[in-house]
Amino acid sequence: MNITALGLLMLGLVLLVAGAEVLVRGASKLAMLLGVSPLIIGLTIVAYGTSAPEMAVSLQANFSGEAGISIGNVVGSNICNILFILGASAMVTPLLVAEQLIKIDVPIMIGVSLLLMLLVQDGTLGQFDAIFLFAGAVVYTLFLFSQGRDDDAEDYDPDTAQQERRQVKIWLINVALMIVGIGLLTQGSTWLVAGAVAIAQAFGLSKLVIGLTIIALGTSLPEAATSIIASVKGERDIAVGNVVGSNIFNILSVLGVAGIFAPNGIAVSPAAINFDIPVMIAVAIACLPIFFSGNVISRWEGIVFFAYYLAYIGYVVLDATEHDSLPVYSSVLAAFVIPLTVITLFIIAVREIRGKT
């Protein structure tokens, strides 16, 4: 394998994480100065900031003629966000789930996932489809900020915020942080795509698989770091809102913008339509019964999420390499693991519904 390609990949990941960290820091401070609630910050500023790597990578992949990475990156990141990031965060400490997430944002996440499946049935995400998705991102963001202004719960000192609002230096510093963050993300995405494509060619793996695994996990590191740190610090609204908001943003805005700038649209492989996007939808739906079971994601539920992510990655790798153990692995998942999970989620949902009636 080309050492240069591996070096580009690693440097790209480092710049992506650093860029997202700087961008989120500046954007979050500005949002707090504007008086937006922590949940809305998690769903918008933090979620959009930590999804900036997915945006940068998808655009760069399009411009490089590697559209398969765009779809794989978004779908893989969404699966990673829920199974890996929420799982790891809940394993650190149980996560409280706000009522708004259960009633509004998770259903929206499920809805946009189903919408994506509908739009790509012809094997392409066209420019009109992309414009439609991006328009949805604008409407959703405006809706969230209107909700945020009605939220009286503020986790900051309003007197301090009022003083800082009058200091031009504070605004300039945080705007500068956002600009620097975007610059790091842009360069990082360029190196990441170049390295990933070279590695894919060396191992004979498809661009979709690379997007679903290496790039998806790499560009999800900012979400992972943000959610885990937020859960440790007790900022659980930000921890969960970051994941849900990122998933919605990835589909509506990342694929929307990427599709708008793709003259011939984004080609979507049969593998993505028949397996990966359905898995993304199933994972989104699985959130509902777990989220409203006492409005808490418990440690054992976090362990289940995390284990499923490992199982998913195992399947993707075995399938890509056409390993001899794939049939047995698939049979175990289909005959035992998946049915058991469906039954468990159903029981959780029924118990919770009965408990509230």
* β-strand number: 4
Our count of helices gives: 14
* Sheet with the most strands, sense and barrel status: 2 strands, antiparallel
Average pLDDT rating: 79
Q: So what's the CATH class?
A: Mainly Alpha
Within the largest sheet, what's the order of strands?
Answer: 1-4
Provide the low-confidence segments as ranges. 150-155
CATH superfamily: NCX, central ion-binding region
Strand content: under 5%
Shape: globular
Using only CA atoms, what is the Rg?
20 Å
Q: Roughly how many Å apart are the termini?
A: 60 Å
Name the helix and strand elements from N-terminus to C-terminus, one letter apiece. Answer: HHHHEHEHHHHHHEHEHH
Helix content: over 70%
Helix and strand arrangement:
Elements: H1 3-33, H2 38-50, H3 52-63, H4 67-92, E1 95-96, H5 99-119, E2 124-125, H6 127-150, H7 158-165, H8 168-203, H9 207-219, H10 221-232, H11 236-260, E3 266-267, H12 270-291, E4 296-297, H13 299-321, H14 326-356
Antiparallel strand pairs: 1-4, 2-3
Structure, explained:
With 357 residues, the protein is an all-alpha fold. The chain has one domain: NCX, central ion-binding region (A middle domain of Talin 1, Up-down Bundle). 83% of the residues lie in helices and 2% in strands. The chain is built from 14 helices and four strands. The strands form two sheets. The protein has a two-stranded antiparallel sheet with strand order 1-4. Helix 3 runs antiparallel to helix 4. It is globular. The N and C termini lie far apart (60 Å). 48% of the residues are buried. About 2% of the residues have low confidence.
